[in-house]
Amino acid sequence: MSQISEIMEYNRQFVEEKEYEKYLTGKFPDKKMVIITCMDTRLVELLPKAMNLKNGDVKIIKIAGGIVSHPFGSVMRSILVALYELKADEVIVVGHLDCGMAALDGEHMIQEIRNRGISEEVLSTLEHSGIDLNSWLRGFKDIKAGVTGTVGLIKNHPLLPSGVPVHGMIIDPNTGALDLIINGYEQAQSK
């Protein structure tokens, strides 16, 4: 049985047995927060448990490395939607130790892209269009600097509402221990 068949069979039983009822909640986050974190598999259940979150408490945006790389990209738009339309009133950026993005090498990934069948013609077209794939696909060297940079990008965004605290944390994906590296309440008070 394929994975998608297994998912569909499980889902049929899940709905039939009304397992969804224990997850019913509204679309507005009860704790009025939006969290930006990494898509690392170790954080799927660990992060909410380590932060004492349950279904419906927060909006969670998962992206590679938990890094917002473009001030007007879809991730920043999602943060602004959470703040303006979905009643969130603070932001937490959570990076993690042993992040795969810290070791991501653009040249290696470009070779993997070639290995998976993307033609040189496509790569050349992108390069001639001004897209530097090596830079775009490169990770970061320091998780703390990555979190700090993302907090700064969000905090200094021209569309961020005044007074919104933007926090930065690093989680240990083995133990769930959180390290608060930027207290957004202190930054909000100092302005």
Automatic annotation (TrEMBL):
Pfam families tied to this protein: Pro_CA (PF00484)
Keyword Metal-binding: yes
Cofactor: Zn(2+)
Enzyme class: lyase
SMART domains associated with the record: Pro_CA (SM00947)
Manner of cofactor binding, per the entry note: Binds 1 zinc ion per subunit.
Catalytic activities: hydrogencarbonate + H(+) = CO2 + H2O
SUPFAM superfamilies membership: beta-carbonic anhydrase, cab
Residues that bind Zn(2+): C38, D40, H96, C99
Enzyme Commission (EC) number: 4.2.1.1
Keyword Zinc annotated: yes
GO molecular function, one term: zinc ion binding
Family annotation (InterPro entries): Carbonic_anhydrase, Carbonic_anhydrase_sf
Assigned keywords, A-Z: Metal-binding, Zinc
Family: Belongs to the beta-class carbonic anhydrase family.
Protein name, per record: carbonic anhydrase
Organism, scientific name: Paenibacillus albilobatus
